[in-house]
Design brief:
mainly alpha, Growth Hormone, Chain: A, 2 domains, 84% helix, transmembrane
């Protein structure tokens, strides 16, 4: 009973701390991007601000992974939220004395996302130590729910703040929120699960040796590599087959109203939330690896259908319903991939390597999406728009089928060996 209370306390404090950090970063990035657009009138400067929220994560993630495995994760998690709080206090002080300038905004955006990257790697690597093993699905579901909700509310709240609230006061509010989050995280028990707690056993090596150790575990572990390529294929097909072709078809070819396009886009995070709220029950009934591979294949099939309204020449009403349903189902399926995937990685990667391996996976996966977006954009107009989604989803679909067959064969072999032993 006492252990259950500690677990629930950790879950509550984890949810509060991560929600403040993720929402604060998401809302600020969007609001400050709009501020830059108003300040300069330049779409390039606006895009640069958004880009600076992604690039630091790709570059810093491997470094953050090594540090997350080197120092107590509590120091990293609390320290990064505190650093963000201090950063916003400094920005507020500067903005109160002198108007915000572009170089200061760029620098603050870079620092915010560096600190948030360290926080994210630290909290992800710490999860198995925060709760009992049977609650690992629960904490991953809560984590995904926070990410999904912030993707909906971040731009909305950011837009409201930009329209109605002086950006300086929001900066001050963000500073207080991050400091409050750091204080609450001080009360999290980062050593609740002794099975996943080996920080005291860490052997200190050089930075490059630590990074190499994480890379070698990642590169030589076939099971982890299979999951990594599922993650890569998912991000590629979303970028190549959905993120570029779908807006082009809906806006340029189908000529759906902008309000309809907005609703269709909102169905994706809605699906993510539905999937996140239901995935725990599904994972109690279906083997994790089978679930995520099947869902990856389903997403590929859904992506192939993106050009179908053009091919069938559907009217606007049917096209709207079709795309709303497709985007909702994709959101649900992605939650059914992400939560089992993270749970398997946390169970199969040794705790002493978890930060490094997770950071390598996240960094490499983040590179795939812009490559897919650029490639897909370059091919629009050169090949049929109805074939483009199919082209991007073919390899992920066949890879998912291959893994399902492989998984079935492994299970059959294991059952035969068990029967022979008995």
């Amino acid at each position: 009973m006492e252990l259950d209370k500690k677990v629930m306390k950790n879950l509550f404090l984890f949810t509060t701390g991560k929600a403040v950090s993720i929402f604060g970063s998401s809302v600020y990035t969007f609001a400050i991007s709009l501020y830059v657009l108003k300040l300069t009138g330049s779409a390039l400067n606006y895009a640069t601000t958004l880009m600076l929220s992604v690039i630091p994560m790709i570059i810093i993630s491997p470094i953050a992974g090594v540090i997350a495995d080197r120092i107590p994760k509590k120091w990293l998690v609390v320290g990064m939220d505190l650093a963000n709080g201090v950063l916003f206090i400094l920005i507020f002080a500067y903005a109160s004395t002198v108007n915000l300038t572009l170089p200061v905004i760029y620098l603050s955006t870079i620092l915010l996302n560096i600190f948030t990257t360290f926080f994210g790697i630290g909290i992800e690597a710490a999860k198995p130590s925060l709760i009992t093993s049977d609650k690992l699905i629960k904490i991953n579901s809560l984590s995904k729910l926070i990410d999904s909700t912030s993707s909906i509310l971040g731009p909305i709240i950011g837009g409201i703040i930009f329209a109605f609230i002086n950006i300086k006061y929001f900066i001050l509010f963000n500073a207080i929120s991050f400091i409050f989050s750091a204080i609450t995280e001080c009360f999290i028990d980062f050593h609740l699960n002794p099975i996943h707690n080996n920080e005291t056993d860490y052997k200190r090596n050089s930075f490059t040796t630590d990074l190499k150790e994480g890379w070698l575990f990642f590169a030589r572990n076939r099971s982890i590599l299979e999951l990594f390529f599922v993650f890569v294929s998912l991000n590629f097909l979303l970028g190549f087959s959905v993120n570029v072709p779908a807006p082009y078809i809906i806006n340029q070819l189908m000529h759906l109203p902008s309000s309809s396009f907005g609703i269709i886009n909102s169905m994706f995070p809605v699906g993510l939330i539905i999937g996140t709220l239901s995935v725990e029950k599904i994972m109690r009934k279906i083997e994790f690896r089978k679930l995520l591979i099947s869902m990856n294949g389903l997403i590929a099939i859904l992506a192939m259908l993106v050009g179908l309204p053009v091919f069938l020449k559907l009217n606007n009403g049917f096209s709207f319903i079709f795309y709303a349903a497709i985007f909702t189902l994709m959101g649900i399926a992605i939650a059914y991939v992400d939560v089992p995937l993270m749970t398997i990685l946390q169970n199969e990667i040794p705790q002493k390597l978890l930060g490094r391996v997770l950071s390598i996976i996240m960094s490499l996966v983040k590179v795939i999406l812009p490559v897919a977006l650029i490639t897909s954009g370059a091919l629009i107009g050169k090949i049929s728009i109805t074939l483009l989604p199919i082209l991007g989803a073919t390899i992920p679909l066949f890879y998912s089928i291959y893994l399902l067959v492989l998984h079935h064969d492994k299970n059959t072999l294991l059952m035969n060996k068990t029967e022979q032993t008995e």
